[in-house]
Amino acid sequence: MEFPQIVAYHGPNRWSGVPTLEVLVDLGDLRMWRSNADPSMVARLLSWLPALDDPPQQAPSQTGYAPPQESFHKLAKDGLSLGDLLQRVTCVLEAAAGTPAQYSRCQAMDDGTSWRLTFQFEEESLGRACLETARQCIQAALSDSAFDAPAEIRKLIDLADDVRLGPSTRAILRAAAARGLPCRRLTKGSLVQLGEGAKQHRIWTAETDETGSIGEDIAQDKELTKTLLRQVGVPVPQGRVAQTSEEACQVAHEIGFPVVVKPRDANHGRGISFNLTTCEGITEAFDHALRENSAGTTGVIIEQFARGPAHRLLVVGDRLIAAIRGQSDVVIGDGHSTIAELIEEANRDPLRGENYTDKLDTMALNKAAELRLKREGLTPDSVLEVGREIVVCYNGDLTTDETSEVHPAVAERAVLAAQTVGLNIAGLDVIAEDISRPLEEQGGVIIEVNAGPTLSIHVEPLYGHPQPVGDAIVELMFPGGEDGRIPIVGIAGGLEASQVGLLIAGLLRKLGRRVGITLGCEISVDGQRPYVLRGSDQDRICSLLLHPHVEAAIFESQSEETLAIGLGCERCDVAVLTNLASASDVTSIDGVLSLVHAIPPEGAAIVPARAPQIDQLLSACRGHTLLYSIEGETDQLRDHQARGGRVAFFLHDSLILGTGPNAFFLPIKGIESSGPVVREHLLPAVAAAWSAGVPVELLRDILARTGL
């Protein structure tokens, strides 16, 4: 089983409307193999991947393909090819890695030896890795060789953690997708654009383009944060910065033992020592905290040790959105295991790991833990008596949702703290015995305010209910249900494309929109000198959607490029297919399918009535189809309109727009087959502008005055 060719389409393409890997699979001597003739091989596959027998997910309608819903057992008994098996195993592995494919297809090629496999991917490197692992799995099953499925799946999960957006960013993107907001990853990191052109915003993990840099700097300085919060009446622990261990001990005597020693500007709980009751312990903790400071930062913070569990409160804008309670990492003696062995056993819990997607962190015998054991008169090699409990880490994992339990006064203090620091999204660390009581009543305190807080703990808490934190952040950026979209018009490249595009731009400007248009290598944005951007159509389309002034985007799409790499945007509200009237080859149709697959349900394809293989175009389009003809009204147009479709044609000195039982007459004058405005170009341009939202009344006025 070889893969002579793999093509990655990073946008809508001829196969589907989602990023797709196209794989040519050469089965060679195994081309005639069928699963019903080798039940032992199938049994081995199922023993490694039980999820094979789960029904595959239904593909979106724009793909034109719905995977079979029968069980794998039944399909294998009926007789699957190796190509079919490769499709199924690849999709199971993608799902195991956290990126289930909504689209996949496998079809035999005419040569009788090869198959073409196409399937959705989220990240190209991960999709390729799932494909290669699927091949190794199938080959091992064929040869009755060893295959360590858990280990291989773990490799894929680790790769997914490396290349995918983080869980906080994904939580926001899921909420954005539910709102219909377009999203584009701008870097290999977590910088993502939500919305398009003039309606865009950006996020970087849980920070937005309106998160203040001053607020971030204040939050990084824990002592300054505490000072500001104290001044506005937010309860914080007493304490201050000490420059030496001797001064730290003096501060502890002033505020009273026990105390906490922590770095001035570290994060993620690094370098913190809790519940210190002696100057000796403070001295050791001082050196540990000092090492975690950033370069150039001096001193450490000494503050009161507040009793109670840790709580993380998430504030978005002026609201408390979520709260979660933490637990300390502890081990309990069994009378014969050392502390190190107990920690090692605890870390075998499959929920624990070092990836940020793991539910629980790995327990670590770090310097802070060793100092804590030393204060208890213990070492990692000490054996705990049965039932004795030792805290390995006070600030352990945040596990239990408690949003509904937060007292209104606590929520008010949290919002005040975030606003005082200057953060529109903040994670506040609170120590309190009972989050359902005001902090002041129980000696509870806010100990930190964090910029860019993790969201995954609220989206998928280990215990309790998930909270809609992504929705809250999306609403903060796009209030009132805004969808962040601008009209996007794509034109299939050809001799007419440029003229049609310029006419559409003129019509959209009549709506008061600032238009960006790319034809060939040139980009033109209203109010800016045109400029040349070398590279691909994808590059130029992306530049329009990135431009902060563009309120409507028009682009030309070349069939050759979309066949090779796919379309440069995930959505095309209106696709104008101007170059099909005289086309007769299949390549021409395949080249425009990328545009058609990008049309959303509320979008439109503007198609010449004489387009070849028009039935294929109509079935591939999720939106509505407008047929147009420069030859006047035809039986084909009448039938299409009678079925509820839209049409456009010339009748004497009028341009007719028809939809269902309605027809709109738009008188035209001074427009011939040659001149500044050509009739043949005007028809699809007006149809596209109408489909993009330009009212008929405005179009009638424009054409009556030929004010293009």
Write the layout of secondary structure elements.
Elements: E1 2-9, E2 20-26, H1 39-48, H2 72-78, H3 82-96, E3 104-108, E4 114-120, H4 124-143, H5 149-163, H6 167-178, E5 183-185, E6 191-194, E7 201-204, E8 207-208, H7 213-220, H8 222-231, E9 239-242, H9 245-255, E10 259-263, E11 273-276, H10 279-291, E12 300-304, E13 310-316, E14 319-326, E15 329-332, H11 339-346, E16 352-353, E17 360-361, H12 367-375, E18 389-393, E19 398-401, H13 408-421, E20 425-431, H14 439-442, E21 445-451, H15 456-459, H16 469-477, E22 488-492, H17 497-509, E23 515-519, E24 522-525, E25 531-532, H18 537-546, E26 552-557, H19 559-565, E27 574-576, H20 586-597, E28 604-608, H21 614-620, E29 624-629, H22 635-642, E30 646-651, E31 654-659, E32 662-667, H23 679-691, H24 696-705
Parallel strand pairs: 16-17, 22-26, 22-27, 23-26, 27-28, 28-29, 29-30
Antiparallel strand pairs: 1-2, 2-4, 3-4, 5-6, 6-7, 7-8, 9-12, 10-11, 10-12, 13-14, 13-20, 14-19, 15-18, 20-21, 23-24, 24-25, 30-31, 31-32
Derived from helix and strand composition plus strand pairing, the structural class reads: alpha+beta
CATH class category of the largest domain: Alpha Beta
Domain count, please report it: 4
How large a portion of the residues is in β-strands, by DSSP E?
15-25%
Low-confidence stretches: 58-68, 581-587
Question: What is the tally of helical segments?
Answer: 24
Distance between the termini: 59 Å
User: For the residues shown, what is the average pLDDT?
Assistant: 90
Query: What kind of sheet is the major sheet?
Result: 11 strands, mixed
User: Strand order, biggest sheet?
Assistant: 25-24-23-26-22-27-28-29-30-31-32
Principal-axes shape call: flat
- Compute the number of strand runs: 32
Radius of gyration: 32 Å
Instruction: State the helicity in percent bands.
Output: 25-40%
